[in-house]
Amino acid sequence: MRVSTVSQMALLFVGAALINNILLTRFIGLCPFFGVSSSMSTSVGMSLAVVFVMTLASGATWIAWKFVLAPLGVGEFLYIPAFILIIAALVQFVEMYLRKASPVLYRAMGIYLPLITTNCAVLATATEAAKPGFFKMNIALGASLSLGEALIYTLGVSVGFGFALLTFAALRERLEAAPVPESLKGSPIAFITAGLLSFAYVGLAGWFGL
Amino acid sequence: MRRLLQTFTKGITRENPLMVLMIGLCATLAVSTQFQGAVFMGLAVIFVLTMSNTIISVFRRFIPVEVRIPMFIVVIASFVTIVDLVMKAFVPSVYAFLGIWIPLIVVNCIILGRAEAFAYHNGVLQSIADGLGMGVGYSLVIVLFAFVRELFGSGAVKFFGVTLLALPSWYAPPAVVLLFPGAFVLYGLYLAAWRRFVTRQGREGGECA
Known about the structure:
The complex is a heterodimer.
Chain A: H1 6-19, H2 30-35, H3 40-72, H4 75-101, H5 103-109, H6 113-117, H7 120-130, H8 147-175, H9 187-202
Helix pairs in contact in A: 1-8, 3-4, 3-7, 3-8, 4-5, 4-7, 7-8
Chain B: H1 2-10, H2 25-31, H3 35-58, H4 68-90, H5 92-98, H6 109-119, H7 124-154, E1 156-159, E2 162-166, H8 180-199
Antiparallel strand pairs in B: 1-2
């Protein structure tokens, strides 16, 4: 088994979180980005839930691909239903477990868990981490990721998701008080704000050759 | 017939998924850098949406309420797999461009949303009309958006190597139109224009993750 160095791991994390930010440079998972970002407290809950579920989901789909789908030779045509069902089942179990084991954590992110099942960010990251051929970042890591790399990558992606969501929520709270032209009120101005925020990430492109 | 037509047209104007309901945005912004890719994305969504609406409507009396969401997802995932394999086999260049966005059609809110809100409660013909209408409404918006972005971002719109429309050579295309900030800003303006001239209202859409 290939062992990657600490610096490769760090690059993978930074690359996934900032340079290839899933929301602002790849447009994956935009529904919660515009849906829940109107208040800071819901954004915090959503970010926590995404970090938690996404990391678990990538681990689960990676194991499913490596030990079930790939050895049986059915991965090419079964990966879509298999991954989405794994994620749905996982979210359901996490919800049940949290309600019993940690009411505090459940109150913080419980209501976002069902929404996350159909969040494309989770399916996208889990697919990239598990199925060879979808991971596109410019790091020499071979054709497929190891379990450790998959988890670091997912953690990076989800932290980047939370970071972008919280920044945007803070901006939108200010936007409430701003004078906006009639036709641009609501969603249009939110998109334009997101565009300006996304300019900041363009400046990161090419860092460390990523 | 009249009702079918109404169901069909509401997906394009009054309840347009991208412009009014504001769902399924991710893929729209991501694949609209290329006209050709956007055309295939639109076709894929029309196919998956219409087929899943049809199947779910046919079997709606046999699907228990408690497990409906997982069953919808399995039906949708099957049709997405068909699209995935067909595109991989016949249009590999488009497949390489769309990449992760093909499997992500499964979690496109439009498709699950129509299954839940429409096909589960309506007859087969109505559901087909709804699927087609929503699919065409989605495709029109994404194809038009991609046309504008490719034209002003790269100076010419191409479809399988054939130039459909080109700007004069003195036009130096600004890269920002094809980059991600451009997508957000242009989409915001596009949305404002659509609301001003087509739907004439600023209604906010449904909740979706």
